[in-house]
Amino acid sequence: MIHSRKQFMLYGYYDNESDDDVNSEANARRINNVEQCFGSSGQPLGIPGRVLVGEGVLTKMCRKKPKPRQFFLFNDALVYGNIIIHKKKYNKQHILPLEDVKLDNVADEGNLRNGWKIMSPSKSFIVYAATATEKKEWMAHIRKCVNDILAQRGLRQSTSIDSPVWVPDSEAKTCMHCRKSEFTVVNRRHHCRHCGIVACNPCTGKRWLLPQQSSKPIRVCLTCYQKLSNEASEFSASRKHSVITGGDHPNSSGEDSSEDDDDPARDGMPSADQIAIHDAHFQSYD
Ligand SMILES: [Zn+2]
Ligand SMILES: [Zn+2]
Fold this sequence. Notes:
Layout: E1 9-10, H1 21-38, E2 52-61, E3 66-74, E4 77-85, E5 89-97, E6 102-106, E7 115-119, E8 124-128, H2 132-152, E9 190-191, E10 198-199, E11 206-208, E12 218-220, H3 222-239, H4 272-275
Antiparallel strand pairs: 1-2, 2-3, 2-8, 3-4, 4-5, 6-7, 7-8, 9-10, 11-12
Bound molecules: zinc ion (2 copies).
The site of one zinc ion has 8 residues, from loops.
Protein backbone atom coordinates (compact mmCIF):
# COMPACT_ATOMS: atom_id res chain seq x y z
CA MET A 1 0.00 0.00 0.00
CA ILE A 2 1.38 3.36 -1.00
CA HIS A 3 0.86 6.28 1.27
CA SER A 4 0.99 9.84 0.09
CA ARG A 5 4.13 11.57 1.26
CA LYS A 6 2.24 14.47 2.69
CA GLN A 7 0.45 14.07 6.00
CA PHE A 8 -1.80 17.08 5.69
CA MET A 9 -4.26 16.56 2.87
CA LEU A 10 -5.73 19.80 1.60
CA TYR A 11 -9.00 19.94 -0.31
CA GLY A 12 -8.82 23.27 -2.06
CA TYR A 13 -10.89 25.44 0.25
CA TYR A 14 -9.05 28.47 -1.09
CA ASP A 15 -10.31 28.00 -4.63
CA ASN A 16 -13.41 29.88 -3.69
CA GLU A 17 -13.54 31.76 -6.99
CA SER A 18 -13.89 28.50 -8.82
CA ASP A 19 -16.40 27.23 -6.30
CA ASP A 20 -18.52 25.35 -8.79
CA ASP A 21 -20.82 22.36 -8.60
CA VAL A 22 -17.95 19.94 -9.07
CA ASN A 23 -16.24 21.31 -5.97
CA SER A 24 -19.31 21.23 -3.81
CA GLU A 25 -20.13 17.75 -5.03
CA ALA A 26 -16.64 16.54 -4.16
CA ASN A 27 -16.90 18.29 -0.81
CA ALA A 28 -20.23 16.64 -0.02
CA ARG A 29 -18.77 13.26 -0.98
CA ARG A 30 -15.75 13.76 1.27
CA ILE A 31 -17.86 14.81 4.23
CA ASN A 32 -20.17 11.88 3.69
CA ASN A 33 -17.15 9.61 3.60
CA VAL A 34 -15.87 10.95 6.94
CA GLU A 35 -19.35 10.41 8.39
CA GLN A 36 -19.33 6.82 7.12
CA CYS A 37 -15.92 6.17 8.67
CA PHE A 38 -17.22 7.20 12.10
CA GLY A 39 -20.47 5.30 11.56
CA SER A 40 -22.88 5.30 14.48
CA SER A 41 -20.09 6.38 16.84
CA GLY A 42 -20.10 9.87 15.34
CA GLN A 43 -22.48 12.75 14.77
CA PRO A 44 -23.86 13.78 11.39
CA LEU A 45 -21.29 16.09 9.77
CA GLY A 46 -23.09 17.26 6.65
CA ILE A 47 -24.15 20.76 7.62
CA PRO A 48 -25.07 23.32 4.91
CA GLY A 49 -22.10 25.58 4.20
CA ARG A 50 -19.59 23.22 5.79
CA VAL A 51 -16.42 22.54 3.85
CA LEU A 52 -13.85 19.86 4.59
CA VAL A 53 -10.65 21.87 4.27
CA GLY A 54 -8.13 19.16 4.98
CA GLU A 55 -7.30 16.09 7.01
CA GLY A 56 -4.39 14.12 8.29
CA VAL A 57 -2.83 12.17 11.12
CA LEU A 58 -1.46 14.03 14.10
CA THR A 59 0.08 12.52 17.20
CA LYS A 60 -1.98 13.62 20.15
CA MET A 61 -0.47 13.73 23.62
CA CYS A 62 -2.81 11.68 25.74
CA ARG A 63 -2.78 10.95 29.43
CA LYS A 64 -0.50 7.93 29.17
CA LYS A 65 1.42 8.52 25.95
CA PRO A 66 1.30 10.14 22.52
CA LYS A 67 -1.16 8.46 20.17
CA PRO A 68 -2.00 8.93 16.48
CA ARG A 69 -5.40 10.49 15.79
CA GLN A 70 -7.11 11.37 12.53
CA PHE A 71 -7.88 15.08 12.39
CA PHE A 72 -10.38 16.74 10.06
CA LEU A 73 -10.28 20.46 9.55
CA PHE A 74 -13.67 21.80 8.50
CA ASN A 75 -14.24 25.50 7.86
CA ASP A 76 -16.21 25.66 11.12
CA ALA A 77 -14.93 22.81 13.29
CA LEU A 78 -11.97 20.65 14.11
CA VAL A 79 -12.96 17.00 14.38
CA TYR A 80 -10.77 14.11 15.45
CA GLY A 81 -11.05 10.49 16.35
CA ASN A 82 -9.24 7.25 17.07
CA ILE A 83 -8.03 5.33 14.06
CA ILE A 84 -9.42 1.79 13.96
CA ILE A 85 -8.60 1.15 10.30
CA HIS A 86 -6.77 3.92 8.49
CA LYS A 87 -9.05 5.73 5.99
CA LYS A 88 -11.89 3.32 6.78
CA LYS A 89 -12.96 3.28 10.38
CA TYR A 90 -12.70 5.81 13.18
CA ASN A 91 -14.35 6.12 16.57
CA LYS A 92 -14.36 8.34 19.67
CA GLN A 93 -15.25 11.42 17.69
CA HIS A 94 -14.61 14.83 19.19
CA ILE A 95 -15.88 18.05 17.65
CA LEU A 96 -14.34 21.40 18.59
CA PRO A 97 -16.18 24.43 17.14
CA LEU A 98 -13.49 26.60 15.55
CA GLU A 99 -14.80 29.84 17.00
CA ASP A 100 -13.61 28.56 20.41
CA VAL A 101 -10.26 27.19 19.23
CA LYS A 102 -6.94 28.83 20.01
CA LEU A 103 -3.46 27.63 19.09
CA ASP A 104 -0.15 28.07 20.82
CA ASN A 105 3.33 27.01 19.81
CA VAL A 106 5.15 24.24 21.71
CA ALA A 107 8.95 24.15 21.57
CA ASP A 108 10.70 20.95 20.43
CA GLU A 109 11.88 18.74 23.26
CA GLY A 110 13.77 15.52 22.67
CA ASN A 111 11.70 13.23 20.48
CA LEU A 112 8.65 15.42 20.82
CA ARG A 113 8.98 17.74 17.88
CA ASN A 114 6.73 19.91 15.70
CA GLY A 115 4.07 20.30 18.35
CA TRP A 116 1.50 22.91 19.25
CA LYS A 117 -1.36 23.36 21.66
CA ILE A 118 -4.98 23.19 20.59
CA MET A 119 -7.04 24.91 23.25
CA SER A 120 -10.80 25.17 23.72
CA PRO A 121 -13.19 25.48 26.68
CA SER A 122 -14.14 21.79 26.55
CA LYS A 123 -10.79 20.23 25.68
CA SER A 124 -7.16 21.30 25.35
CA PHE A 125 -4.20 19.18 24.32
CA ILE A 126 -0.90 19.10 22.47
CA VAL A 127 -0.49 17.55 19.02
CA TYR A 128 2.64 16.77 17.01
CA ALA A 129 3.04 16.74 13.23
CA ALA A 130 5.55 14.52 11.44
CA THR A 131 7.56 17.43 10.04
CA ALA A 132 8.10 21.13 10.66
CA THR A 133 6.47 21.91 7.31
CA GLU A 134 3.34 20.07 8.23
CA LYS A 135 3.17 21.78 11.56
CA LYS A 136 3.35 25.11 9.75
CA GLU A 137 0.65 24.06 7.29
CA TRP A 138 -1.70 22.76 9.94
CA MET A 139 -1.32 25.81 12.15
CA ALA A 140 -1.72 28.24 9.26
CA HIS A 141 -4.82 26.50 7.94
CA ILE A 142 -6.47 26.17 11.33
CA ARG A 143 -5.76 29.84 12.08
CA LYS A 144 -7.13 30.94 8.74
CA CYS A 145 -10.32 28.96 9.28
CA VAL A 146 -10.72 30.33 12.82
CA ASN A 147 -10.25 33.90 11.60
CA ASP A 148 -12.61 33.39 8.67
CA ILE A 149 -15.37 31.92 10.81
CA LEU A 150 -15.01 34.69 13.40
CA ALA A 151 -15.16 37.34 10.67
CA GLN A 152 -18.10 35.62 9.02
CA ARG A 153 -20.04 35.45 12.26
CA GLY A 154 -18.98 38.91 13.40
CA LEU A 155 -17.26 37.53 16.50
CA ARG A 156 -14.01 38.31 18.24
CA GLN A 157 -11.63 35.66 19.44
CA SER A 158 -13.23 33.74 22.27
CA THR A 159 -12.39 34.99 25.75
CA SER A 160 -13.88 31.99 27.52
CA ILE A 161 -11.59 30.06 29.81
CA ASP A 162 -9.95 27.11 28.09
CA SER A 163 -9.78 23.74 29.75
CA PRO A 164 -6.24 22.93 30.92
CA VAL A 165 -3.80 20.78 28.97
CA TRP A 166 -3.33 17.74 31.20
CA VAL A 167 0.17 17.02 32.47
CA PRO A 168 0.99 13.51 31.16
CA ASP A 169 1.03 10.85 33.90
CA SER A 170 4.64 10.02 33.17
CA GLU A 171 5.75 13.51 34.11
CA ALA A 172 4.69 13.13 37.72
CA LYS A 173 6.21 10.53 40.02
CA THR A 174 4.82 12.32 43.05
CA CYS A 175 1.78 14.49 43.66
CA MET A 176 2.25 17.94 42.13
CA HIS A 177 0.12 19.45 44.88
CA CYS A 178 1.46 18.11 48.19
CA ARG A 179 4.82 17.06 46.67
CA LYS A 180 4.89 14.12 49.07
CA SER A 181 2.49 11.43 47.99
CA GLU A 182 4.28 8.97 45.71
CA PHE A 183 2.21 7.30 42.99
CA THR A 184 1.88 3.52 42.99
CA VAL A 185 -0.56 1.00 41.56
CA VAL A 186 -2.81 1.68 44.54
CA ASN A 187 -2.12 5.39 44.94
CA ARG A 188 -3.49 6.44 41.57
CA ARG A 189 -2.84 9.63 39.67
CA HIS A 190 -5.66 12.10 39.23
CA HIS A 191 -5.92 15.25 37.14
CA CYS A 192 -7.20 18.57 38.30
CA ARG A 193 -9.77 19.59 35.67
CA HIS A 194 -9.10 23.25 36.29
CA CYS A 195 -5.28 23.49 36.13
CA GLY A 196 -4.33 20.07 34.69
CA ILE A 197 -1.78 18.98 37.31
CA VAL A 198 -1.35 15.36 38.36
CA ALA A 199 -2.16 14.99 42.04
CA CYS A 200 -3.01 12.35 44.62
CA ASN A 201 -6.54 11.45 45.66
CA PRO A 202 -6.70 13.53 48.87
CA CYS A 203 -5.26 16.56 47.05
CA THR A 204 -7.99 16.26 44.38
CA GLY A 205 -10.77 15.28 46.78
CA LYS A 206 -12.92 18.30 45.95
CA ARG A 207 -15.33 18.70 43.07
CA TRP A 208 -16.37 21.84 41.23
CA LEU A 209 -18.86 22.52 38.47
CA LEU A 210 -17.00 23.48 35.28
CA PRO A 211 -19.94 23.55 32.87
CA GLN A 212 -17.82 23.74 29.71
CA GLN A 213 -16.34 20.36 30.56
CA SER A 214 -19.13 18.46 32.31
CA SER A 215 -22.66 18.78 33.62
CA LYS A 216 -21.54 17.34 36.95
CA PRO A 217 -19.02 18.75 39.40
CA ILE A 218 -15.60 17.39 38.50
CA ARG A 219 -12.28 16.77 40.25
CA VAL A 220 -10.19 19.81 41.11
CA CYS A 221 -7.07 20.19 43.24
CA LEU A 222 -7.23 21.92 46.62
CA THR A 223 -5.52 25.05 45.30
CA CYS A 224 -8.04 25.43 42.47
CA TYR A 225 -10.90 24.62 44.83
CA GLN A 226 -9.84 27.45 47.11
CA LYS A 227 -9.42 29.81 44.18
CA LEU A 228 -12.78 28.90 42.63
CA SER A 229 -14.51 29.18 46.02
CA ASN A 230 -13.07 32.64 46.56
CA GLU A 231 -14.11 33.74 43.08
CA ALA A 232 -17.60 32.35 43.60
CA SER A 233 -18.09 34.10 46.92
CA GLU A 234 -16.89 37.38 45.43
CA PHE A 235 -19.24 36.80 42.55
CA SER A 236 -22.25 36.03 44.72
CA ALA A 237 -21.47 38.93 47.04
CA SER A 238 -21.63 41.26 44.05
CA ARG A 239 -24.60 39.53 42.46
CA LYS A 240 -26.69 38.41 45.42
CA HIS A 241 -27.62 35.16 43.72
CA SER A 242 -25.21 32.41 42.93
CA VAL A 243 -25.85 31.19 39.43
CA ILE A 244 -23.92 27.97 39.64
CA THR A 245 -26.37 25.40 38.41
CA GLY A 246 -25.85 22.30 36.36
CA GLY A 247 -27.05 22.24 32.78
CA ASP A 248 -27.55 19.23 30.62
CA HIS A 249 -24.35 18.12 29.03
CA PRO A 250 -25.12 14.89 27.24
CA ASN A 251 -21.75 13.21 26.94
CA SER A 252 -20.00 13.93 30.20
CA SER A 253 -20.25 11.96 33.36
CA GLY A 254 -17.62 13.74 35.41
CA GLU A 255 -15.87 10.43 35.94
CA ASP A 256 -12.12 10.25 35.66
CA SER A 257 -11.79 8.24 32.50
CA SER A 258 -14.60 9.89 30.58
CA GLU A 259 -12.76 13.10 29.90
CA ASP A 260 -9.78 11.47 28.25
CA ASP A 261 -9.87 9.43 25.09
CA ASP A 262 -7.26 7.05 26.37
CA ASP A 263 -8.41 3.52 26.85
CA PRO A 264 -7.82 2.95 30.55
CA ALA A 265 -7.94 -0.81 30.15
CA ARG A 266 -4.79 -0.75 28.04
CA ASP A 267 -2.55 0.74 30.61
CA GLY A 268 1.02 -0.24 29.74
CA MET A 269 0.05 -2.38 26.76
CA PRO A 270 1.27 -1.43 23.30
CA SER A 271 -1.85 -0.49 21.39
CA ALA A 272 -2.49 -1.13 17.72
CA ASP A 273 -2.67 2.55 16.93
CA GLN A 274 0.67 3.15 18.59
CA ILE A 275 2.26 0.94 15.94
CA ALA A 276 0.56 2.85 13.15
CA ILE A 277 2.25 6.08 14.20
CA HIS A 278 3.19 8.31 11.26
CA ASP A 279 1.99 5.73 8.84
CA ALA A 280 -0.43 8.03 7.10
CA HIS A 281 0.09 11.44 5.65
CA PHE A 282 -1.72 14.71 5.21
CA GLN A 283 -2.96 14.79 1.65
CA SER A 284 -4.54 17.13 -0.82
CA TYR A 285 -7.54 16.38 -3.01
CA ASP A 286 -6.99 19.04 -5.64
ZN1 LIG B 1 -1.08 15.16 47.14
ZN1 LIG C 1 -5.79 22.62 40.07
